[in-house]
Amino acid sequence: MNINTKFICNIFAIVLVFTAITFANDNLQSAQNSKKYTDECIKCHSENDMMPEHFSENDIHLQNGLSCAGCHGGLSTSADEEIAMSKKNGFVGVPTKKEIPNFCGKCHSDISKMQVFQARISTDQVSQYYISKHGMQLKIGNKDVATCIDCHTSHSILPASDTRSTVYAANIPNTCNNCHGNSDLMNKYNLKSNQVEEYSKGVHGIALLEKHDNSAPACNDCHGNHGAAPPGVKSISHICGSCHVNNMNFFNNSNMAEPFAGLEIKACEQCHGNHLIAKPSDEMLNVKTSTTCTECHDKGEDGYIASEMFYEKLTQLSELYDSTKAMSEKIAIIGMNNIEIEYELKNVKQALIQSRTLVHTFDTSKVVGRTNEGVLASLNALKLADHEIEEHDNRRIGYGISTLILILLAGALYLKIKGLNT
Ligand code: HEC
Ligand code: HEC
Ligand code: HEC
Ligand code: HEC
Ligand code: HEC
Ligand code: HEC
Ligand code: HEC
Ligand code: HEC
Ligand code: HEC
Predict the structure, then answer these.
(1) Which helix (H) or strand (E) holds 349?
(2) Is residue 298 lining ligand 2, measured as CB closer than 6 Å?
(3) Is the CB of 97 under 6 A from ligand 5?
C-alpha cells in the first residue's frame, strides 16, 4: 500500500466509526423515547404538541420516574383522553396559585413517600413556606407573592446542586429579582426594589457572582430557602454568625450586645448594612471622617475614646506592617536571607487581622494588647533586617578589600614577568 491508499483507507475507517456511533446513538435515543412513551400522558401530549411551555426532560421528577400523573393525577396507562384525565382516576388538572404549596406538598410533606427516593430527605418545605412572608400572604389570597413554582419552575425542576437550576446559588439573585427587582410591584408593598443591585456590589455578591466563591451567602442563606422573611434582631447576628463565628461571639459577649438588643438596634447590620456590605477598613473607626461609632457616641464618651484608640493602634500597626514588608523585599533583592523576617512578618499580619476582628469586643485592652504584640513582632523583624543590611555592607567592604589585593597581586606579577623578559 502506498501512502495515498493508506490515507484514503484511514479516512474511510474514521467515517465508518462515526456512522456506527451515530447509528448507535439514534438507537439509544429511540429506545429511551419508546421507554418514555409507555406513559400515555406524555405520549399523547407530546405527539399532539401539547407539552407545557418550558418543559425539560432533565426535570428531576421525570428523571425519578414520576411523570405527569405524579403531580396532576389521572391514569397514565390509558390512551383514552376521557379515562386518563377523569376525576374518577384522581385527575386534579391545573392547580390555582393558592393550591400550589399543597399540590407539591402531597409528596414533599409526606415522609413515607419521599423516603423511598432519599433516606434522609427533609419534608418541611411547605410548613416553612407558610411561616414566611410569601406563605402568609398567599394564605390570605395575595397573588403577587412567590409560591413553589416561582422559585423552582413547574416543568423543569432541577436540584439546587445543578448549575442550571433556578435555585443554584449563583442563579438565586436572578430568581428573586424577577419580582424583587420589579419596582412597580414592590412599590405596592412599600418595599425597595434594589436588593439584587446592592447585593451584587457588596462583598458577598462580588464573592459569589464574580469570584465564584460558593461559601459566600446568596439571598436564601440569610433569608432562608422557604422561610424567606427579613430576619429579626436576634436572628440577624445569628445568621451572620453562622459564617463569621468570631465576630458574632465577640459582639455577643461585648458590653454593647445588651443595650443594642434593648434598644432594638440591629446588630451587624447597624455598622455593615445588609445587602451593600462594603469591604471594612480601619477608616470606619476614624472619628473625623466616619460615623460608624460617632453615630451613637459623642466626644468624651467611652465609645468615642475607644474608637480613637482603635484607629490609632490599627493604623500604626498597619503602617509598620507595610514598612516591614518593604524592608523584607529589599533584603531579598540584595540577596540576603529574609526567612526569619518573613516569619515575623506573618506574625504581624496575624496580629493585624485578629485585632480587626477583636474590634467587635469593643474592649480597648483586648485590641491594644493584640496590636502591641504585632508592633513587637514588627520591631523584631526590622532589627533582623538591620542586621542583614549590616552584614551585607560588611561583605561589600570585604569584597572591596579582597578585590584590591587581587589587583595589586596581578600588578606585581605583571611587573615581575615584564622584568624577567627584559
Ligand atoms: C389521548 C390524549 C391525552 C392523554 C392520554 C392525556 N391527555 Fe392531558 N390533555 C389532552 C388534551 C387534548 C388536553 C387539552 C383539552 C382539555 O383541556 O381537555 C389535555 C389537557 C391536559 C391538562 C391541562 C388541563 C387544563 O385544565 O388546562 C393537563 C394538566 C393534562 N392534560 C395532564 C394529563 C395527564 C396527567 C395525563 C395522564 C394521566 C394526560 N393528560 C393524558 C390529551 C391527553
Ligand atoms: C412537579 C409537578 C408537575 C409535574 C411532574 C407536571 N406538571 Fe404540569 N403543571 C404543574 C403545575 C404546578 C402547573 C400549574 C402552573 C403552571 O402553569 O406552570 C402545571 C400546569 C400544566 C399545564 C397547563 C399549563 C401549561 O403550561 O400549558 C399542562 C398542560 C400541564 N401542566 C401538563 C403536564 C404534562 C403533560 C406533564 C408531564 C410531562 C406535567 N404537566 C408534569 C406541575 C407539574
Ligand atoms: C422564595 C423561593 C422559594 C420558594 C417559594 C420555594 N422554594 Fe424550595 N427552595 C428554594 C431554595 C433557594 C432552595 C435550596 C437551595 C439550596 O439548597 O441551596 C430550595 C430547596 C427546595 C428543596 C430541596 C430540599 C430542601 O429543603 O433544601 C425542595 C424539595 C423544595 N425546595 C421544594 C419546595 C416546595 C414544595 C415549595 C412550595 C411549598 C418551595 N420549595 C418553595 C427556594 C424556594
Ligand atoms: C409525586 C410526588 C411529588 C410531587 C407531587 C412533587 N414532587 Fe418534587 N420531588 C419528588 C421526588 C420523589 C423528588 C426526588 C427526590 C430526590 O431524589 O432528591 C423530588 C425532587 C424535587 C426537588 C429537588 C430536590 C433536591 O434534591 O434538590 C424539588 C426542588 C422539587 N421536587 C420541587 C417540587 C415542586 C415545586 C413541586 C410542585 C410543583 C413538586 N416537587 C411536586 C416528588 C414529588
Ligand atoms: C413571584 C414573585 C416573588 C419572588 C420570585 C420572590 N418574592 Fe419575595 N416577595 C414578593 C412579594 C410580592 C412580597 C411582598 C409581600 C408583602 O409584603 O405583603 C415579598 C416579600 C419578601 C420578603 C419580606 C419583605 C418584608 O420586609 O416584608 C422577603 C425577605 C423576600 N420576599 C425575600 C425573597 C427572596 C430571598 C426571594 C428569592 C429566593 C424571593 N423573595 C422571591 C414576591 C416575590
Ligand atoms: C448577608 C445577609 C443577607 C443577604 C445575602 C441578603 N439579605 Fe436581604 N436582608 C438582610 C437583612 C439583615 C435585611 C433587613 C432586615 C430588617 O431590617 O429587619 C434584609 C432585608 C431584605 C428585604 C426587605 C426589604 C429591604 O430591602 O429591607 C428583602 C425584600 C430582601 N432582603 C431580599 C433579598 C434578596 C432578593 C437578596 C439576594 C439578592 C437578599 N435579600 C440577600 C440580609 C440579607
Ligand atoms: C453563608 C456564609 C455567610 C453569611 C451568612 C454571611 N457572610 Fe459575610 N462573608 C462570607 C464570606 C465567604 C466572605 C468573604 C468574601 C470575600 O471577601 O471573598 C464574607 C465577607 C464579609 C465581609 C468582608 C470581610 C473582609 O474582610 O473583607 C463582611 C463585613 C461580612 N461578610 C459581613 C457579614 C454580615 C454583616 C452578615 C450578616 C448580615 C454576613 N456577613 C453573613 C460568608 C458569609
Ligand atoms: C458597632 C459597629 C460594628 C458592629 C455592630 C459590627 N461590626 Fe464588624 N466591623 C466594624 C468595624 C469598625 C470593622 C473594621 C475593623 C478594621 O478593619 O479596622 C469591622 C470589621 C468586620 C469584618 C472584617 C474584619 C474581620 O473580622 O475579618 C467582618 C467580617 C465583620 N466586621 C463582621 C461583623 C459581624 C458578623 C457582625 C455582627 C456579629 C459585626 N461585624 C458587627 C464594626 C462593627
Ligand atoms: C447604634 C448605636 C451605637 C453604635 C453605632 C456604637 N455604639 Fe458603642 N455603645 C452603644 C450603647 C447603647 C452602649 C451602652 C451605653 C454606654 O456605655 O454608652 C455602648 C457602649 C460602648 C462602650 C462601653 C462599653 C463598656 O465597657 O461599658 C464602648 C467601648 C463602645 N460602645 C464602643 C463603640 C465603638 C468602638 C463603636 C464603633 C465601632 C461603637 N461603640 C458604636 C451604642 C452604640
Answers:
(1) helix 339-358
(2) no
(3) no
